[in-house]
């Protein structure tokens, strides 16, 4: 199913950017786990639009309702229904664009696949679809933290040509990440990133960036050989996100420039058992976690919808000049931080349940 993700801890999302609401059905959540709407709302608040001057002007509270699967603040083991209503949608902003496929957007490809597409916003390709992912992933985060002590932290490591200094992945925290609007823990780089985003916005343009993410305390042994390798599932999760264009784990592409003698992670005995001196593998070897922090990076392109005039054609092939209307992010990476965290949680929660089956 194109709208479902996971095997045992499974989420199916629904809704379009300008319909009545969006949400998810989450199946496989263990019973008797404490869960309230407030547990989920924390990540939705970090994802929601209208937080600051760096994002879209669309103002949505994105308040989640738990429709099923929870009683007396405890999970029942049955599917959990989650709903967030759209309240600040403006489909009228897109009337003039209904006959023109926006450059680098999904308008044309959706029409090629289905013979139709949502007339306003991006429909299912809009970042509002990720609300269901974040809500479901917040449940996965709570499960992972309570059962295994797993901590997941993502941060902005670059915007355009501005790169943050290397971050200590053992100590990075969400509190530190949220210390500024751009969600970069390097204060100096954050100022330059903010200026880059505001310059793009002023020019009616957009800019891309890169997110880094670390998952700490992941036990050794998670992940499947061959097709369902941990890094393959994580790549699947991250590259399914709107605007994502690249994924690398551990040393990533930089490791391709090294020799084995430089890249190998020698083993050493640690208090909890075997570990590695270095972690160029990104916490995964042979597709299976080795007990070291799992860390990776995700590249996001500049948002496709911009206010600048662009020369393109309509669906009939006639030349047109398009200056897109609507409310859009000039850069998505700051709001994508909780999305990356919660998608990583969905992957790990699923692998945790799969590993439990072997006991």
Give a short synopsis of this structure.
This protein has 359 residues and is an alpha+beta fold. Helices cover 27% and strands 22% of the residues.
Structural overview:
With 359 residues, this protein is an alpha+beta fold. It contains 8 helices and 18 strands. A 5-stranded antiparallel beta sheet has the order 1-2-3-7-4, covered by helices on one side. Strands 9-8-10-16-11 form a 5-stranded antiparallel beta sheet. The chain has a two-stranded antiparallel sheet with strand order 5-6. The longest helix has 24 residues, at 333-356.
Highest CATH level, the class: Alpha Beta
Tell me the β content. Answer: 15-25%
Number of strands: 18
- How large is the count of helical segments? 8
Q: Over all CA atoms, what is the radius of gyration? A: 21 Å
Number of domains: 1
**What name is given to the CATH topology?**
Chorismate synthase, AroC fold
Helix and strand content put the structural class at alpha+beta
SSE pattern: EEEHEEEEHHEEHHEHEHEEEEEEEH
How does CATH name the architecture? 4-Layer Sandwich
Q: Percentage of helical residues? A: 25-40%
The CATH superfamily label reads Chorismate synthase AroC
Strand order of the largest sheet: 1-2-3-7-4
Instruction: Catalogue the unreliable spans.
Output: none
Q: How widely separated are the two ends?
A: 29 Å
Shape: globular
| Average pLDDT number | 92
Largest sheet: 5 strands, antiparallel
Give the oligomeric state. Answer: single chain
């Amino acid at each position: 199913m194109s709208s479902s993700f996971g095997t045992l801890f499974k989420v199916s999302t629904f809704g379009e950017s300008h319909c009545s609401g969006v949400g998810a059905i989450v199946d496989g959540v263990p019973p008797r786990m404490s869960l309230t709407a407030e547990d989920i709302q924390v990540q939705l608040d970090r994802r929601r639009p209208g937080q600051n001057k760096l994002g879209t002007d669309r103002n949505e509270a994105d308040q989640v309702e738990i429709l099923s699967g929870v009683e007396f603040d405890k999970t029942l083991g049955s599917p959990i229904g989650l709903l967030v209503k759209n309240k600040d949608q403006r489909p009228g902003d897109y009337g003039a664009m209904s006959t023109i496929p926006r450059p680098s957007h999904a308008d044309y490809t959706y029409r090629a696949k289905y013979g139709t597409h949502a007339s306003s916003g991006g429909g299912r390709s809009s970042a509002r679809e990720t609300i269901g992912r974040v809500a479901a992933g917040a449940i996965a985060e709570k499960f992972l933290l309570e059962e295994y002590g797993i901590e997941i932290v993502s941060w902005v490591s670059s915007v355009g040509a501005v790169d943050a200094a290397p971050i200590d992945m053992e100590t990075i925290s969400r509190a530190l990440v949220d210390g500024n609007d751009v969600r970069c823990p390097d204060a100096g780089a954050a100022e330059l990133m903010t200026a880059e985003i505001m310059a793009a916005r002023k020019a009616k343009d957009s800019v891309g960036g890169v997110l880094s993410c670390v998952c700490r305390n992941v036990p050794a042994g998670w992940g499947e050989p061959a097709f369902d390798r941990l890094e393959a599932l994580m790549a699947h999760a991250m590259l399914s996100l709107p605007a994502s264009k690249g994924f690398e784990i551990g040393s990533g592409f930089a490791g391709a420039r090294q020799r084995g003698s430089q890249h190998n992670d020698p083993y050493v005995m640690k208090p909890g058992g075997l570990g590695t001196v270095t972690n160029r593998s990104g916490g995964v070897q042979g597709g299976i976690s080795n007990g070291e922090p799992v860390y990776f990076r995700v590249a996001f392109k500049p948002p496709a919808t911009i206010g600048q005039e662009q020369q393109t054609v309509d669906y009939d092939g006639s030349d047109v000049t398009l200056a897109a209307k609507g409310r859009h992010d000039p850069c998505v990476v700051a709001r994508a931080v909780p999305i990356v965290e919660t998608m990583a949680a969905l992957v790990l929660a699923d692998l945790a349940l799969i590993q439990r089956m072997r006991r």
